[in-house]
From TrEMBL:
Upper taxonomic lineage: Bacteria, Bacillati, Bacillota, Bacilli, Bacillales
UniProt enzyme class: hydrolase
EC number: 3.4.13.-
Keywords: Dipeptidase, Hydrolase, Metal-binding, Protease
Signal peptide: none
Domain of life: Bacteria
Protein name, per record: Dipeptidase
Organism of origin: Jeotgalibacillus haloalkalitolerans
GO terms for MF: dipeptidase activity
Alphabetical list of CDD domains matching this protein: M20_dipept_like
Pfam family of the protein (one): M20_dimer
Peptidase M20 dimerisation domain segment(s): 192-351
Amino acid sequence: MALDQYFRDNRDRHLAELTEWLSIPSVSSLSEHKQNTLKGGEWIAENLRKIGMENVQIIQTPGHPVVYGDWLHAEDAPTVLVYGHYDVQPVDPLHLWETEPFQPAIRDNKIYARGATDDKGQSFMHVKAAEALLKEHGKLPVNLKFLIEGEEEIGSVNLPKFVEENQDLLASDVIVISDTGMQEKGQPAICYGLRGLAGIQIDVKGAKGDLHSGLYGGAVQNALHALVSLLDSFRDENGVIQVDRFYDKVEPLTDEEKAAYEALNFSDEALKKELEVEELFGEKGYTSLERMWTRPTLEINGMWGGFEGEGIKTVLPNEAHAKITCRLVPHQDPDEIVELLTKHVEAHTPAGVTVEVTPFDKGAPYVTPYDHPAIQAAGASYEKVYGVPTQFIRGGGSIPIVAAFDQILQKPIVLMGFGLPGENFHAPNEHFHLENFDQGLRVIADYYSTLPEVLKK
């Protein structure tokens, strides 16, 4: 590729810059990191200015701000809107990190840090690809707009309204997002569907305070026991969700999709080895890929209550709490699912306690036909760089804003991911394979370069 030498010559600088950005603890969910999250946005705004982006702004929202910048001088060329996020997940449990999460470390050609692959590393590649094209050619082959937000990890709560109110600012011909993954090492993949998200917190309240288990045990409901009973009612022993009407709008896979997934030769044995488990578990009657990509889920993400210190404290806890999230598939509505979950909780609340349900994190599912020229062109750029055909897959995760982009801007969305399944995003020791950083820069630059001709056809 024409830009190979530029990327080689500037690799150390690019990684030093990425290290600097990754060092900022922009954890959007924790109020203690509010200023750090803002700093993360300010850092990428300044980097956009340095590479030659214009109209760079840090735009306030009711929460964390969005960063915008553009370069709009490519006459008769399409406009690409690049979306990413500068916020990251919390780092707990900290003791499981081999190196400090905000002190990036490179080992075995991987960069370890919170946000390395989700999503600073992947967003950063688009900035550096644009830099290379501007430095080497003095211009871009496409008009380019960047929209980098600070609330993706908390559900992009303020971004849909921002998009709705700024449709002219964000007008484009195609939307490109690098916040997904490849199928496996050396095997590029474009994701054409994502599951949605609906979450609730369950708060159980019993007696007026913690009680002595000897004085009151056997006569008063234990809030933790009540919570366990309630949580156990959500799924049966085969992983089938027991919430009334939960599956009403779930459509079966087409024969074409089933055949495409079988052709991927996905290995359950390899997955067990990767995860270090003896057995897999999921909804009976479906393959692992179908469970992870195309079936809805209900998972307990955390639960707490009672005494957790060293030793024992013989109390009946008066409070217990849990967080639950559901991954949703096309046609399932997050608001409706929250309503169904709430009704289930009300119907299964044990005697002797009161329960409050609080919604959080919502995002609609997304799926699109993958034969659009903009998506096929991305596949061709992958194949040119990686030397193997691109696979078209669904993703089990959620990017809340994708469905909003689809509904509001109504433009094709290209999910060009460069992460790998084992890179521990949302977990300790998150990392990004630098071979995909290097290859990804070339894929993105090639895609920008070929897109004008493709969209003319």
